[in-house]
Please model this.
Amino acid sequence: MSDIAHLAAELFRRAAGRDRFIVGIAGPPASGKSTLAERLRTLLGEAAALVPMDGFHLDNAVLSARQLLARKGAPETFDFDGFEATLKRLRAPGADVVVPLFDRAADLARAGAGIVPASARFVIVEGNYLLLDEEPWTRLAGLFDRTVYLDVPRGELAHRLVQRWIDHGLSEQAARERAFSNDMVNVQRVEDRRRTADTVIEARIR
Model:
């Protein structure tokens, strides 16, 4: 049985008798959080909903005004208060919860783009900073019933991040500059300043 299948089976056991069970999947940029979250949602079936933290990105205009556009993706470039408030709403089943989703092609968050139905027993939340041991992110600690951390060698993350920007149309040099000036800074912050997860999955090199 795969690591993900084992995880799904464990979640089913731990959620027994619960109307709502919230799973937090954390890890550095390019660690494979979205892929893991989608595969886990498939295994958990129709009872599962997915909430990516990327939907809470601040708009580029706001980041420019705050002189943070070059650091987009860092903890301070997210709407933390909105994210925390949404997680608190999700903890209490009984009503649909509307959530924003990030449109990567347009490079912006779209308000009201997703809905977590009241019927969702499992809510899978994925994001870089769910386990960040810095204020105000430490306030998230009590909002997850189970946490998972994806551990990937830093060299592999660098390779993936450079390739990600190349896939977005940048030259190799520009992609490396983008990855190492911002993304890898965020990688180090996630790795060096994280709380302990309930489950650690060592991601396979692809």
Q: What stands out?
A: The chain is about 35% helix and 20% strand. Strands lie at 21-26, 48-52, 97-103, 108-116, 122-127, 146-151, 199-202. The mean pLDDT is 94.
